[in-house]
Amino acid sequence: MNIHEYQGKAILKSFGVRIQEGIVADNPEQAVEAAKKLKQDFNSDWVVVKAQIHAGGRGKGGGVKLAKNIDEVREKTKAIIGMQLVTPQTGPAGKKVNKVLIAQDVYYPGASETKEFYMSVLLDRAHGRNIIMYSTEGGMDIEEVAEKTPHLIQKEEVDPAIGLQGFQARKIAFNLGLSGAAFKDMTKFVAALYKAYDATDSSQFEINPVLKTSDDKILAVDAKVNLDENALYRHPDYAELRDLAEEDPTEVEAGRSNLNYVKLDGNVGCMVNGAGLAMATMDIIKIAGGEPANFLDVGGTANAETVKAGFNIILKDPNVKAILINIFGGIVRCDRVAQGVIDAYNEIGNIPVPIIVRLQGTNAEEAKKLIDESGLKVFSAIQLKEAADLVSKVLS
């Protein structure tokens, strides 16, 4: 589950990570009041107006602006809230900005120069280790750094059974070229960041940039956080941070019906039970000359209600030209699924695209008979090849 920058920073701060302070605002007047409070609390004459969406690269899309006075705070907030912000991570459609973070200016002058670093903590599933990735080249162009100069991205493996060791935090600070007060502060920063990642059951904490201020303080200027949805039962307070406005409405609707749904860009909708079977079904669609329009797993207890919900969700996509239902009857009997398809079809009525139903497993023959005798515009199949051939036929 993705959360906003201001929410991620609040979590970091609760674990002792120094952050760029800020106040979230929903409109220009709230932004002005936030700027006044930051000036009072942190002596921040200038502030940064930062769009809050679930995507990185906001600065490149015009979603991060420096405001040097109150009038500019109002003006820039007004321009950002409501905009359709397009970044390299949003796709061409972009995301609508509903709120901004008014953040303190941390690039203040001092005895030495500021320096931006990159740091993230994530899980390396292949090796069963947590990884701290870091680089001396932080900032907006970190993707280009990773592509063109990958040797500048360094990694530190952490055994989750042991946790981050002190020497590892010091090694990271040393490799970043720090010394003195900045070195000590970075070791504390790394330790607190890892603790936050581990204790929140996160799958990713990305800080870009991590800033060394001109007075040698280390702080998080940004926070891109992904919480593991499977662990949210342990963190009900974090579950409340979910922003449904940032998610695809169809995926949100599917979640309410306990369906696992991901929208894709193809022309054949698919409904299956089981993630592995879903991947195989998408392969079948590709082999047959189509493109999968979605990933939709109805689970192991598919019935008329779940099938109906699946139909409604798939049919919201105007690009869908056919629907392939591929169910293995293990826990659930195929004839019950077939009856569910028939009932859902009759209840929805006038489904405008052909439907291919492939049922295999318990009572598969009875299920095929039900489909064939239903009189509906539904094609039945037993073998995968039959289903693929039918997909080719209805698309041609």
Automatic annotation (TrEMBL):
Q: Name one GO cellular component term.
A: cytosol
Q: Which cofactor does it need?
A: Mg(2+)
* Residues annotated for substrate binding in this entry: N273, G330, I331, V332
As one GO molecular function, the record gives: succinate-CoA ligase (ADP-forming) activity
Q: In which pathway does it act?
A: Carbohydrate metabolism; tricarboxylic acid cycle; succinate from succinyl-CoA (ligase route): step 1/1
Q: Where is the ATP-citrate synthase/succinyl-CoA ligase C-terminal domain?
A: 271-388
The cofactor binding remark recorded in the entry reads: Binds 1 Mg(2+) ion per subunit.
Annotated positions binding ATP: K50, G57, R58, G59, V106, E116
This protein's source sits in the domain of life called Bacteria
Instruction: Tell me yes or no: is Cell inner membrane among this UniProt entry's keywords.
Output: no
Which reactions are catalysed by this chain?
succinate + ATP + CoA = succinyl-CoA + ADP + phosphate; GTP + succinate + CoA = succinyl-CoA + GDP + phosphate
Q: Which NCBIfam families match?
A: PRK00696.1 (NF001913), sucCoAbeta (TIGR01016)
**Functional summary from the UniProt entry:** Succinyl-CoA synthetase functions in the citric acid cycle (TCA), coupling the hydrolysis of succinyl-CoA to the synthesis of either ATP or GTP and thus represents the only step of substrate-level phosphorylation in the TCA. The beta subunit provides nucleotide specificity of the enzyme and binds the substrate succinate, while the binding sites for coenzyme A and phosphate are found in the alpha subunit.
UniProt protein name: Succinate--CoA ligase [ADP-forming] subunit beta
